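Exercise 7.
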Amino acid sequence: MASIDTISLPTARRIALAAQGFGAPRPAKVGPRDLARTVERLSLHQIDSVNVVARAHYLPAFSRLGCYDRDLLDRAAWGAKRERRLFEYWAHEASLLPLSLQPLLRWRMAAADRGESGWKSMRSFARERRAEAEAVLARIRSEGPLAASDFDNGKGRGGWWEWGEGKVALEWLFWAGHVTTRTRRGNFERVYDLPERVIPAAILTMETPSEAEAQRQLIERSARALGIATAGDLRDYFRLSPETGRPAVAALVDEGTLQPVTVAGWRQPAFLHKDARRPRRIEGQALLAPFDPLVWERARTERLFGFRYRIEIYTPAEKRVHGYYVLPFLMDEQLVARVDLKSDRQGSRLLVRKISLEPGAPAETGARLEAELRLMAEWLGLESVVTG
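Solution. The predicted structure, written as tokens, is:
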């Protein structure tokens, strides 16, 4: 039996940061190819409706590339069919993904169609209430793209649903792959349409891999994006169950794509992607969204950085420790601060409501954080940064 390498925690940290796209100089001018490379590297950008600073799907690219035109991402995600490069689906959570991943998630769509996945409230639409969902689909087919608010103030034209029921039917159709997102409008409301009217035919006609092969490829994607990870980390990236993730990890080990390793201080075995870089140092700084793939798995964040991170949006104000919408601050190879931020769009200000430095944060943390805050304000089109 081959010996298992032991990797130091600082080395594991650098491997993870490099895999996530940190450490490289930011481009002077960000173009579509830079954005495409970032999305491809991460495999997905998680979507969240909270818009305190900026919507979450815009932030990972800013963290890695610096100032970029958000319209680039909008066109790739919700633009005309000929320029579309991304699609929406449930991956980690609701996510924007490269179109090439659509065939790898068809098994999840098929499971939803059978009523085997998705929220409990959706599953009835796969079975006893399927005719109601089919009626919603028929209306989209005949009328074109529709949102939940288009169903007569929340009711279908036949008066069948309260708003909640109509929305649930639409979401089941989305989970099951019968509709996809055409665009977003107003207050970021999803507008649904038929996949063949949104997703290029070259993608829809691609062969559907077996469930096992699709899951193997998703785990490989996770490993490439994480660099070094436990089996749980690898499964979490695309929300795979232990039952589906375990054989996929084993297959990747057998073929040599994943190398079993030990990370000093980690209780669980880890796996290193064969193409993972091992840089000698990582330099740079970034403010990270709460849903950035570097930090979204909180146990991994604590293992890698010794940084216990919880989002406190749903915590009563008087019980919050660090603030309402807190972004970790990455400086070189450590998470050194937490910053509670808010975009005051009417006043054209980036409000820094609280800064919490980590124990041992280097002396230059304040100056480098200030520079990153000014860069974020510029990117968001805000005129000033206001602390306090």
